[in-house]
Structures are given as C-alpha cells and as structure tokens.
Amino acid sequence: MITGPTFEEMLHPEKIAPDIRQRALAARKNDPLDPINLFNITWRDADNKITHIVLPPELTGVDTPIVVLYGKAYPSGSHKVGAAYSILLEKEMFGDVDPKVHTLVWPSTGNFGIGGAWVGGRMGCKSLVVLPEGMSKERFERIESYGAKVIKTVGSESNVKEIYDETHRLRNSDPNIRILNQFEQMGNYRFHYHVTGNTIVELAAELKTRGIGSGKVSAFVWAMGSGGTNAAADRLKQVFPACKHVALEPIQCPTLFNNGYGAHDIQGIGDKHVTWIHNVLNTDALMCIDDLSCKKGLQLLAEPLGRETLVKRYGANAELIARMGDMFGISGICHILGAIKTAKYYGFGKDDVVVTAAADGLDRYYSVMHEMAHQYGKLDEATALGRIEGVFHAVKTDWVLDGTRDVRERWHNLKYYTWVEQQGKSVQELDAQRDPQWWVEHQQKVQAIDERLVALRQANG
After folding, report:
1. pTM score
2. Average pLDDT value for the chain
C-alpha cells in the first residue's frame, strides 16, 4: 500500500520527515510522476510559504484586500489533487479499496478527474475518469498522460447527472469497480476543512504582520463544484465567527439562486445540483457570476498587452502583474469577481480581508483562450481598458441571495432530489445533516485518520 502525508503534514509539510521532504521537493521538478510527490500535496512551497497573492487594487477596483490562494503549484496542477488523495487514502486504509483488485472511477468535470488520475497512478491503482465531452481538450490530454482512461459523457460543465448515470452503469457492470465520488465523499470535505481552512487561518495572521488586514478573515468566497473547498468556511467561521461564507454560481446555471438550470463555461463549478458535502446551512449568501465575464477577464490577464495596460494606464506593480499571467483559470477569475462583489455588497474596507482561491492555472485553458481570440479578437489597449473597467471595476451587487433561515432550508431540501431519489441516500441521512454536530463529527475524524496512517507506517517499518 502506497501512502503519502497525513492531514497535518499537508497543512504543515515541515513536519514531514526531513529526508522524505527533501526527496519530494527534488522530485517535484525532476520526476513529477514519482509517488514521493504525494508529499508535495500542500498549499505551501519549498520554503513553507503559503502560495497566495494579494490582488492589486488597480485590478479589483476596491480598497479591501482580496487574497487568492493558487492551486497550480500542486502536483497535477490543481488543489483538487488533495481531495482525490484524501478520499483514496481513507478508502484504502479502511479496506474499501484494494489497488490489486479494484478499478477506481473518478466522476468529474475536470480537475478532480485529473487529480484522481495522478493520485491513482501514484498509489498503484487503475483509474477511469468520467467527464463531459465538452470540457477543454487540455483536461483530457492531462488525464491520459497520467495513465488513466477517459469515458466521455454527453454535455458540458453542468451535465453532472449524465456522469452519475455512467457511474451507475459501470458499477453494475463490474463488482470490482469502486466509485470515488467527489460530490459525496467526506474525505474531500475533511481535506479542505483541515488543510485549506487552517492554512487560511494562519495566512490571516501572517498578512497582519505585513500590514494587510487585522488578522481576521471577513469572508471566504468559493464557487461550488464538488462543494469540498467550501468546507474551509466551516473552519474559518469557527475561528472568526463573523466571517461570511459566500457561495458562487454561474448566472447561466443558477441552481441554488432560483432552482435554475442551463449550460455554462466556468469549468469546474455550477453542476445543477446541491452536493452532499456542501454545508449549505452554514452559507451566508449565494452570488451569481456571468461566465463570459470570467472568460473575458482571463483573456485580459493571459495576454501580455492586457497585463501591460494594467501597469501602464493604472500604475499596477509590474512584477506582481507579471506573476498573474498564468496563475488563474476561468473559475479563478469567477472567484475574483465574486470576491469583489462580496467586498462591495458587505461594504468592507481596508481592514477587512476577503479570501478565495484559484483551483488551477492557465495551462488548462489555452484552447479556450484561442477560441476567445478567434471570436473577440486579440486585445488592443482600448479593449484591455474596457475589460478592466467593464469586467473588474464594474462588478455590481446584483444577483445576490442572502442565506436567510428559509433560504438555507430550501438549499438543504434540494439535496433530496439528487441524493435520495437518484443516489440511494436515505431521508434519515439527509435529515441528520441539519444537526451541526453531524458536521463536527466528520471534522473530528481528521485526527483519528492521521493516527491510523502513522500506525500503519510504524507497522510497515
């Protein structure tokens, strides 16, 4: 059985045995497919610094510091690899998965499938990734490069039911199939509650020493894909009770906003259902973002002239803007726009800190950017100015739904149609989620899982 870090070691990689840590850091560049890279699953770099950027106000148009953790430095190029690893580790340790016998199925709209293909291969497992045919070609290429097979389903980002239908077919076709469903597996929740949540807590304190914020997080903003990253907000609200948890959806597919549906192109979010692992009863607001605004915003940062315009016309720091050229994907821009909307909606000021994250980087969207250039043309300075003012600075506080008691109850009830009617959960299981202690009990399993992994290491010498 091939294993990697504990939850605590993913949060604090300096706690990894020094020889293993050094081997992992060396392999990051020299041999990225070596299983030792499992120990590089963390939000921290080789110097144990948290991978983040404080966005320049010249881009955001607000005084409130907006801080973005970026996931492109993770193995496989996305933080979703952490969720994939945590789910598979728990399944192996508790005997649900045997790498010698079982084939893993990773239902996904992209990054989780890529992460699953990478993790499964490093942990000695055969993998199938099920994702919609309409996703960017870079996603399919990356999955296959890690040795996994791909099954394409009908549709695009929001066609998750079709993914579920295919996983049902696969499960019924072979008793040795194991479905690792990111939308329901609590290993995904635990990774983000403990690792992402506590990373942000520590980052807030670090930012204060640099004169940014007051040591608190005023809001955490995240667009639901699996709902896993939203678990960071559960930890943040325990530490900072006034922290707002703001969830995002595409305007083109506003499922939680108004029971809406539709297709969109913010790849990785907005899947026409409420995920099992999203604690909607702890969510303060739902905001919707336009998918075309996200793609136009990404084009601004992806093209050199767009970045040059931010420096030349707005006085943004050239070094900082240069770093942002390949740092974000489409959903990353969605999160930035959602963070700006959050700062405006709640009237936050200079002492408030709004935190979000970027799940992946530009490398998964070159084909999308090529299509954008073909459709809208490459940027000139006038167009770049229009993107800065019209996409980022012009963010409005429309499409906002407060998470009142009644609204939260509706969000919770929407889980019934996917999870009870389609996925085999019981009404009793669904009702249990209304009790905050249900979530606390899952949070508290982190320590027990870590202890079990440490004991396994000792037993194996």
Report:
1. 0.96
2. 95
